[in-house]
Design brief:
The structure is a single chain. This protein is α/β, with parallel strands linked by helices. The protein is about 30% helix and about 20% strand. The chain folds into two domains: about 5-95, no CATH class; about 100-375, Alpha-Beta Barrel (TIM Barrel), CATH 3.20.20.70. It has helices spanning about 5-15, 25-30, 135, 160-170, 190-205, 220-230, 250-255, 260-275, 295-305, 330-345, 370-375; strands at about 40-50, 55-60, 70-80, 80-85, 90-95, 120, 125-130, 175-180, 210-215, 235-240, 280-285, 310-315. The strands form three sheets. The protein has a seven-stranded mixed sheet. It is globular. The mean pLDDT is about 90. It binds iron/sulfur cluster. Iron/sulfur cluster (SF4) binds near residues 135, 142 and 147.
């Protein structure tokens, strides 16, 4: 009898290859499930926790160009019951989150709420509050990034609209925690001030744990004051994202952002750690953009040695990015890196599963938490 693959393996395999969605299923998914951008290449499916306790573990899949040729196909076996087949044989059961009621509502500016923030895992609301990156506008976009095209969304959202959406989702029971990020803006705060403004509006309406992501700020006093304000208004976790630890490679992959000195990351992480504390500060590294394992593991260890966990995400080539035709990293490579990263966190006494906001590290973007919890 074939052994059922682990949750982590299923996740990395689906993220590597994408998932074919039969055209006849698209309209039904959009109408009844949490799949507002399925026709533009993004879907979240959930796996059952191996503990058998009913917990659903999300898998965030970016299909890019490769999804149409994926060996994995989503199939509805009976109304509301889904499985994934691999080359027509059963691969895994999946659950689709029902379409949350707030998706049917409009913000005060008459924008459909599903274009303002989306559910990316059970209870997890996410918004890219501003999708107009200054580096995209100056021809210096990070080559793996297609933020301006993401995902059937309103590229520019007012903080008020994001807050209305978050509170509507909270009120209908579909939102338990929130993560927000922004493209980089041409301001000293790089967009973080707008996130903090949004946080304050949400916090005034409901006490929901929140997590923010940002580029490092060169103005450290400004960073400190914004992070303190964020913490006072419900933010429990922060990710200051490096994306590429290979500092020789990074200016090529990220012509603008890649030139930020590593020392700036260290300083920003230190400030964030002093405010949010252990296990609440992280960074993101994208795997499969030209770096080697040695640079990644060295970077993960350096960050961990000062108390920062690296959330490893596979490069999922997105349509519209410079790297849209790049091969994603293999599932085997991802699993091996996750195992090594988890070992590094254990060495430094860091807990990948302890993030108070329960957001990004528990989310569907990476299998690192699944490896930490259940192994490969
Ligand atoms: S990843 Fe790079 S290009 Fe994309 S939003 Fe961030 S800074 Fe801009």
């Amino acid at each position: 009898m074939n052994k059922q693959p682990s949750v982590a393996r299923i996740k990395v395999e689906l993220q590597e290859k994408g998932i074919r969605i039969p055209p006849e299923l698209v309209g039904r998914l959009e109408a009844h499930y949490n799949a507002p951008a399925v026709s533009t290449g993004r879907i979240v499916v959930c796996l059952d926790s191996p503990k058998g306790d009913g917990e659903l573990l999300p898998v965030f899949i970016v299909n890019g160009k490769r999804g149409a040729a994926s060996p994995y196909q989503l199939t509805e076996t009976s109304p509301g019951t889904f499985e994934v087949r691999k080359e027509n044989a059963f691969y895994t059961n999946v659950t689709l989150i029902p379409r949350p009621p707030f998706y049917n509502r409009l913000t005060s500016g008459n924008i459909p709420m599903y274009k303002v923030a989306v559910i990316v895992g059970p209870g997890h609301l996410r918004s890219v509050v501003d999708q107009r990156c200054v580096y995209q506008q100056t021809g210096q976009a990070c080559k793996f990034c297609a933020v301006q095209y993401w995902w059937n969304a309103a590229a520019v959202k007012q903080s008020e609209q994001v807050a209305e959406t978050a509170l509507a989702g909270y009120a209908d029971g579909s939102v338990k925690h929130i993560s927000m990020t922004t493209a980089t803006l041409n301001t000293p705060d790089r967009g973080l001030a707008n996130l903090v403004k949004t946080v304050k509006l949400i916090h005034a309406g409901a006490k929901i744990p929140m997590m923010l992501e940002s580029e490092p700020l060169l103005d450290h006093a400004l960073l400190k004051s914004l992070l303190l304000e964020a913490k006072a208004n419900g933010v429990t976790s922060i990710s200051i994202n490096i994306e590429c630890f290979d500092r020789e490679l990074s200016p090529d992959i990220m012509p603008a952002k890649g030139k930020i000195p590593f020392a700036e990351y260290m300083k920003n992480w230190e400030i964030a750690l002093n405010i949010f504390g252990k296990n609440e500060v992280s960074t993101v590294a994208v795997v499969g953009i030209g770096e080697d394992d040695a640079s990644l593991l060295k970077g993960i260890e350096t960050a961990a040695s000062v108390g920062v966990m690296t959330f490893l995400v596979p490069h999922s080539p997105a349509v519209g990015a410079v790297f849209e035709d790049m091969e994603p990293p293999s599932a085997e490579r991802m699993l091996a890196l996750y195992e090594k990263a988890v070992g590094i966190y254990q060495k430094y006494g860091l807990d990948m599963c302890a993030c108070t906001a329960g957001c990004v590290r528990g989310g569907g973007f990476s299998a690192i938490k699944d490896v930490a919890r259940f192994g490969v």
